[in-house]
Write a structure and sequence with these properties.
The complex is a heterodimer of chains A (about 120) and B (about 110). With about 120 residues, chain A is mainly beta. Helices cover about 0% and strands about 55% of the residues of chain A. Chain A is built from no helices and 11 strands. In chain A, strands 2, 4, 5, 6, 9, 10 and 11 form a 7-stranded mixed sheet that branches. Chain A has a 4-stranded antiparallel sheet with strand order 1-3-8-7, with no helix packed on it. The model of chain B has no long low-confidence stretch (mean pLDDT about 95). Chain B is an all-beta fold. The chains are: A mainly beta (about 120), B mainly beta (about 110). At the A-B interface, strand 4, strand 5, strand 9 and strand 10 of A face strand 3 and strand 4 of B.
Chain lengths: ~120, ~110
């Protein structure tokens, strides 16, 4: 069964509004989670690392004031797309690592499809 | 992290064995190899991972030669539902833990 969930699975919003996406690890704790973005026919692109109890770290070219990340607890990270514009329309996916060392496995959420009109 | 190179696409027929080879020439001692499957509009799904030799689970086998500069994902008797994109990734167990995705291999299974 799914070990990482995302909510909502799909969201349509008007340009200029903010959208919050939740990522939950279901039966394990994750002090770190990752947020990716995927455009049609392209691969996943890492946006940021969400750290429980500290600030998120963003990849080069990702605006931290536009993509707000909050790691509220050991099982929840949220990504808020602020003042969304049509170019932010994409598939957003989170992941959380489970296990450690060579046994660590990244589990991905089902993704959130964002459409900004 | 070592860059991975894999074929852009592959075609197969139902019931055949499919082998997808990935090269990672610059793999480091503390790197290991992991494979994911992704269907359209879904998050990637973990398939298998390993460090060396052969690993087998209920869905696939992973062959890693002694020099670890390549790996081969083997899918036995594929079905139409195996049509997906398959990603080979190199993962380090220390430091940065995010996965870096390449372009993957688009597998098309025909009836």
């Amino acid at each position: 069964g799914a070990v990482v969930s995302q909510h909502p699975s799909r969201v349509i919003c008007k340009s200029g509004t903010s959208v919050k996406i939740e990522c939950r690890s279901l039966d394990f704790q994750a002090t770190t989670m990752f947020w990716y973005r995927q455009f049609p026919k392209q691969s996943l692109m890492l946006m940021a690392t969400s750290n429980e109890g500290s600030k998120a770290t963003y990849e080069q070219g990702v605006e931290k004031d536009k993509f707000l990340i909050n790691h509220a607890s050991l099982t929840l990270s949220t990504l808020t797309v602020t003042s969304a514009h049509p170019e932010d329309s994409s598939f957003y996916i989170c992941s959380a690592p489970r296990g450690g060392g060579f046994q660590e496995t990244q589990y991905f959420g089902p993704g959130t499809r964002l459409l900004v009109l | 992290l070592a860059k991975t190179t894999q074929p852009i696409s592959m075609d197969s027929y139902e019931g055949q064995e499919v082998n997808i080879t990935c090269s990672h020439n610059n793999i480091a001692t503390n790197d290991y190899i992991t494979w994911y499957q992704q269907f359209p509009s879904q998050g990637p799904r973990f398939i298998i991972q390993g460090y060396k030799t052969k690993v087998t689970n209920e869905v696939a086998s992973l062959f890693i030669p002694a020099d670890r500069k390549s790996s081969t994902l083997s899918l036995p008797r594929v079905s139409l539902s195996d049509t997906a994109v398959y990603y080979c990734l190199v993962f380090r167990d220390t430091g940065r833990r995010a996965l870096t995705f390449g372009s993957g291999t688009r597998l098309q299974v025909q009836p």
